Amino acid sequence: MFLINTKNKLSADCVVNKKRISEVQNIKLIEINEDLPDIEIQPDNVIIDGLFGSGLNKPIEEKVFSDIIRLMNSSSAKIYSIDIPSGLFGEDNDHNILENVVKATKTFAFQSPKLAFLFPDSTSESCSSSRVQITEKFS
User: Fold this and answer.
1) What pTM did the predictor assign?
2) Which CATH code is given to the segment(s) 45-139?
3) pLDDT computed for residue 139 by the predictor
4) What percent of the chain has pLDDT over 70?
5) What is the enclosing helix (H) or strand (E) of 73?
6) What are the structural domain ranges in the chain?
């Protein structure tokens, strides 16, 4: 598991989740602060993409993020994106850098598909998607 922390600053929620992950056996957490280390992604690896969410509104230009996305895309591993492939804008992607968008095998979109999934230019980046209904229970 990779935690990209280029600003050397984590939110309180991230600190809690980082501690939880460190307590799980068989999961190695690698924190990336600057350059991407040498990483080899095996064909039988599964990548869960959650770098950026649907609120992204500018192209990914920071080197470490574009490097990791290009590494993921160049692998033959299956990539499952959470809600939206990282780097893809939720709507219009005319001014986006599509080389810096995750090419997901499948995207699990929460509540409803994103508008970008309907545009021909972005369909190759998001591949197929499934809708995940989120239900909250209040007591």
Assistant:
1) 0.78
2) 3.40.50.10260
3) 47
4) 82
5) helix 63-74
6) 1-34, 45-139
